[in-house]
Design goal:
By secondary structure, this protein is of the alpha/beta class. InterPro entries: HATC_C_dom (IPR008906), RNaseH-like_sf (IPR012337).
C-alpha cells in the first residue's frame, strides 16, 4: 500500500482522466461478456484499450509457429475472493474461467488463477485505480466524474444528471455549520439591541493546541424573563493580558456586533489578575468603556473553592497520601484491572477509584469518600503488591480520613447549590450565609466539654465499628476545631459581611409585600419615587398572588410598565451573573469539539451551534442560498 501511495502522489490530471477511460472500458467489456459476446481484439496492457485481433494463424512476425504448451486436463475455478486482488471472471459459462485485471484490463490464462500469481500481477502493475482510494477528499474532482461516466454508460444520461446534485464537497458540513452559526449570531445580536441592558460572564482557558480561548455568555431581557445565551468564543492570538483580552472582546462586541458597552450592566469572572487588575484588567477596561453604572461579581463558585483551600498540615498530609494511593492504582493499567477484579471478588459496592484534580471542584470530596468506602479492598491490594503505602492504613489514619470524607462532602453540597443557570444574588448569598452559620454552630458544639460529632456521619460510623480510644477522638476533635477556624476565616475573607449588608438594603426586591406599613420603609433608604411605587405595590393583592407563583426576575419584568422605577432598580440588581458556571459548561463542550485529532479546528461556529439557546431560522438560511 505504501508503494501505491507513493505512486499516486506522482499522478496528475492525465492519470485521473485515464482512470475514467479504463473504468468505462471495463464496464463496456463486462456488458459485452454479459450479453454472451466477446470483444474483438485483445487488451493492450500499456494503454488499457482493445486492439484488433490477429489473423488467427497463430504465426508471429518471424513466421515461425510457436511451440505448443502443455495444458492441464483440469481447469482452475474462479473464486469470489479473487476480486480483492483486482480480478474478475471474463469468460462465458461454456469456457474455462479466465481472470481479467480491472486496472489494466489484461486477461490472463486459466492457470493464473492462483492467489500468488494474481497478487504478483497487482503488485507489479502501476495502479491508477488506487487514486480513488488514497484520496477520499477528492470526491468532487475525481470520484464524481468517474461515477457519472459509469452511470451514463451502464444506464443513461438522465440518471447520470441526478448524480450531479449530490453534495460531495470537502467542506459541505463545515459550510452548513457556518451558515447556521451566522444565523444564530444575527438573531442574538438583534435581540441584544432590542433588549437594551445586558450582562456578561467570561472566562479564559487554553485548548489542546495551546491556543488561548475566551468564552463569553450574555444575559438579557427577552419575552418577560431573563434569557441566557452563548455570545462568542474568541481566540486570543498572542498573550492573555487584560489589554489583549479586552482588545479582542471589544473588536467583536463593539466593532463587529455594534453593541454599546453602556448597556452592559454586569460583569462576572474569576479573580485572576488579568481579569481584575486595578490598572489594566479586563474589568477595569470594560468599566471605562461602559461608565460607572456597572457591577463586577467575583464568581461564587471560585470563591468557595478558594475558601476551602485552608487546611491544617496534619489533614493536608493525609489528603496527599490518599492521592498517592489513588495514583498508584489508577496510574497503572495492570493495577487498575487487578484492583477492579479484587473488588468484584470481595463483593464491594464500587470497583473503581476516582482521580483527583484541582480543576473539577467536586473531585476531592468524591475521591475521599470512595477511598474510605473501599478501604479494606485497597489495603488488601496494596498488601498483596507489597507496596509501602499499605502501612498508611492504620486506625488513626482511617479515622482522619473519615472526617475528610465528611467535611468535603458538605463542601460539595454547597458547591452544587451554587451551580446552575438562572441564578440570582439573593439565592447564592442565602446558601453561603447558611453554610457559614453551620460552621460556627459546629465549632461551638466541638468546644463544649462533651463535643458532639452528629454532623459527621462517617466519623460516627467509624467510632461505632472500631474500638477508637478517647485519646484519638480528642486528637481528631482538636484537628477539626483548627480546620473550622481556618474555614470560617477564609469564608469571611472571600464572602465579607459588608457586601451582604449592602444587599440587605435591597431586600424589598426579594419580597416587596413585606413592607405594607409606612414605617417599615424608613430603613430601606429609598428615593421618593421608589417609596411611592413600593407603597402602591405592597397594597396590590393581585400582584402578591402573582409574585408567589412566578420567578423573581419574571415578576419584576412583568410590572415594568406599571412600576417602572422599582422594576428598573430590580432588574439592574438581578441581571448580573453570580457565577461563571455557564462558561465552565462551555469549556467542557469545547474539549469535546476541539480534540487533539482536530487541533486546527476553528471551534467558534461549532460552539455556537452546540450551545446557543436560539432556534435557527431555516427559512432565512435556505432563502440566502437560493438567491
Amino acid at each position: 500500500m505504501d508503494e501505491y501511495v507513493d505512486t499516486v502522489h506522482r499522478l496528475g490530471k492525465k492519470e485521473a482522466n485515464r482512470t475514467r477511460q479504463v473504468i468505462v472500458q471495463f464496464v463496456k467489456s463486462q456488458t459485452t461478456a454479459r450479453d454472451g459476446c466477446q470483444p474483438e481484439g485483445e487488451v493492450n496492457p500499456a494503454t488499457g484499450l482493445i486492439q484488433p485481433a490477429s489473423d488467427g494463424t497463430g504465426v508471429g512476425e518471424s513466421g515461425d509457429e510457436p511451440p505448443a504448451k502443455k495444458r492441464k486436463s483440469v481447469a482452475r475455478p474462479y473464486k469470489d475472493y479473487f476480486l480483492k486482488y483486482g480480478f474478475v471472471n471474463c469468460s462465458n459459462p461454456s469456457q474455462d474461467p479466465r481472470p481479467m485485471c480491472v486496472i489494466c484490463c489484461e486477461k490472463l490464462a486459466n492457470e493464473s488463477l492462483k492467489p500468488t500469481k494474481l497478487k504478483r500481477h497487482l503488485e507489479t502493475l502501476r495502479p491508477p485505480i488506487w487514486f480513488l482510494i488514497v484520496w477520499p477528499h477528492d470526491k468532487k474532482k475525481l470520484l464524481l466524474p468517474a461515477t457519472i461516466d459509469m452511470v451514463s454508460t451502464v444506464i443513461d444520461e438522465k440518471s447520470a444528471e441526478k448524480l450531479k446534485r449530490i453534495p460531495l464537497s470537502n467542506n459541505t458540513v463545515s459550510r452548513r455549520i457556518h451558515d447556521i452559526s451566522e444565523n444564530l449570531e444575527e438573531q442574538l445580536v438583534s435581540r441584544l439591541k432590542a433588549a437594551g441592558d445586558f450582562s456578561i460572564q467570561l472566562d479564559e482557558s487554553t485548548d489542546v493546541s495551546d491556543c488561548a480561548s475566551l468564552l463569553v455568555y450574555v444575559r438579557y431581557v427577552w419575552e418577560n424573563d431573563f434569557a441566557e445565551d452563548f455570545l462568542c468564543c474568541l481566540t486570543i492570538p498572542t498573550g492573555t493580558t487584560g489589554e489583549e483580552i479586552f482588545s479582542v472582546l471589544n473588536d467583536y462586541m463593539a466593532t463587529k456586533c455594534g453593541l454599546d458597552w453602556a448597556n452592559c450592566k454586569g460583569i462576572t469572572s474569576d479573580g485572576a489578575a488579568n481579569m481584575t487588575g486595578r490598572n489594566s484588567g479586563v474589568v477595569k477596561r470594560i468599566k471605562e468603556a461602559a461608565g460607572k453604572d456597572i457591577v463586577w461579581n467575583h464568581c461564587f463558585i471560585h470563591r468557595q473553592a478558594l475558601a476551602c483551600k485552608g487546611i491544617p498540615p496534619d489533614l493536608d498530609k493525609v489528603l496527599k497520601e490518599v492521592i498517592r494511593v489513588v495514583n498508584f492504582i489508577k496510574g497503572s493499567a495492570l493495577n487498575h484491572r487487578l484492583f477492579d477484579q479484587l473488588c468484584a471478588d470481595m463483593g464491594a459496592e464500587h470497583t473503581h477509584l476516582l482521580f483527583h484534580t484541582e480543576v473539577r471542584w467536586l473531585s476531592k470530596g468524591r475521591v475521599l469518600t470512595r477511598v474510605y468506602e473501599l478501604r479494606n479492598e485497597i489495603h488488601a491490594f496494596l498488601h498483596e503488591k507489597k507496596s509501602p503505602l499499605a502501612d498508611l492504613f492504620t486506625d488513626d489514619w482511617l479515622f482522619t480520613l473519615s472526617y475528610l470524607a465528611d467535611i468535603f462532602s458538605s463542601l460539595n453540597e454547597l458547591n452544587l447549590k451554587l451551580q446552575g443557570q438562572c441564578d440570582d444574588v439573593f439565592r447564592n448569598w442565602k446558601h453561603v450565609m447558611a453554610f457559614q452559620k453551620s460552621l460556627k454552630l459546629w465549632l461551638a458544639r466541638l468546644r463544649r466539654p462533651n463535643p458532639s460529632h452528629y454532623m459527621f456521619p462517617t466519623v460516627l460510623q467509624h467510632i461505632e465499628e472500631n474500638d477508637v480510644s478517647d485519646t484519638d477522638v480528642k486528637h481528631l476533635t482538636g484537628l477539626i476545631r483548627t480546620h473550622f477556624v481556618a474555614l470560617i476565616d477564609n469564608f469571611d475573607r472571600y464572602f465579607p459581611t459588608e457586601r451582604y449588608d449592602i444587599l440587605s438594603d435591597k431586600r424589598w426586591i426579594q419580597n416587596p409585600f413585606e413592607f405594607e406599613s409606612p414605617e417599615s420603609l424608613l430603613e430601606l433608604g429609598l428615593t421618593p419615587a421608589e417609596e411611592k411605587e413600593l407603597l402602591q405595590l405592597s397594597s396590590d393583592r393581585t400582584l402578591k398572588r402573582r409574585h408567589e407563583c412566578m420567578a423573581l426576575s419574571s415578576f419584576w419584568i412583568s410590572i415594568s410598565s406599571e412600576y417602572p422605577v422599582l422594576s428598573k432598580a430590580s432588574i439592574l440588581l438581578l441581571i448580573p451573573f453570580t457565577t461563571t458556571y455557564k462558561c465552565e459548561v462551555g469549556f467542557s463542550v469545547f474539549t469535546k469539539i476541539k480534540t487533539r485529532h482536530r487541533n486546527r479546528l476553528n471551534a467558534a461556529p461549532d460552539m455556537r451551534v452546540a450551545l446557543s439557546s436560539c432556534t435557527p431560522d431555516w427559512n432565512a438560511i435556505l432563502k440566502a442560498h437560493l438567491l
